[in-house]
Specification:
The chain is α+β, with helices and mostly antiparallel strands. Helices cover 29% and strands 28% of the residues. It has a single domain, classed as 3-Layer(bab) Sandwich (minor pseudopilin epsh fold), CATH 3.55.40. The chain contains two helices and ten strands, in the order H-H-E-E-E-E-E-E-E-E-E-E. Strands 3-2-1-5-6-7 form a six-stranded antiparallel beta sheet, with helices on one face. Strands 4-8-9-10 form a four-stranded antiparallel beta sheet, covered by helices on one side. The longest helix is centred in the first third of the chain and has 50 residues. It is elongated. It starts with 6 loop residues before the first helix and ends with a strand.
């Protein structure tokens, strides 16, 4: 006895047609393009968020180090044994934001410690240095020029690298962004930094 199969089932058993393959490939390409665009947007937003949080932690680190009268002994060996700082030595930590004009050079941030020399006078040493991702930049709008120092006696941030600096009488702001995503750091008069 012979088995007879309909012609249509014999034709379809050989695989997919070219049109079916092109449709599937087109759909996969569209989905992949949308996913890549969404990932890039998410990644840029995360760069801004992380940079803003990092700068907030830099300001907090400078503030807490000044309040605890901690001097980096490895970088300020002469001052490690000095007694409690005098008024002159209270602006112990500086936060400097360096905005590079060139888009190929990332913006940088520094924490610098004020070291009191045993023979008198003071010197500034770099404690920490970092760079923002190249797609992110910051812009201090407050006239401080990106330089702030914390004074532990008055419990306040000041503008400028020289003592006495300009006291922050109102909250200061630094924006961090990449053009489409922007975060603002608000530096209050008492030294607290929040991200908005």
């Amino acid at each position: 006895m012979k088995l007879h199969l309909p012609k249509s089932s014999l034709l379809n058993s050989n695989g997919f047609t070219l049109i079916e393959l092109l449709v599937v490939i087109s759909i996969a390409t569209v989905i992949g393009s949308i996913s890549l665009a969404a990932y890039n947007t998410f990644s840029r937003k995360q760069d801004v968020d992380q940079s803003a949080l990092r700068l907030q932690s830099i300001f907090d680190e400078a503030r807490f180090s000044a309040l605890s009268i901690v001097r980096p002994a490895d970088k300020c060996p002469e001052t490690a044994t000095l007694p409690s700082p005098s008024y002159k030595s209270t602006r112990q930590y500086i936060v400097e934001l360096k905005n590079n004009v060139s888009p190929t050079i990332p913006d940088e941030y520094f924490i610098k410690a004020i070291c009191i020399k045993s023979g008198g006078g003071e010197t500034t040493v770099e404690v920490e240095k970092g760079k923002l991702p190249s797609s992110v930049s910051f812009n201090p709008f407050d006239g401080c020029g990106g330089v702030y120092y914390y004074e532990s006696i008055t419990n306040k941030f000041y503008c400028g690298a020289t003592s006495p600096g300009v006291e922050l009488t109102s909250p200061s702001s630094v924006t961090v962004g990449n053009g489409s995503d922007i975060k603002t750091l608000i530096i209050s008069q008492n030294g607290k930094v929040t991200v908005q």
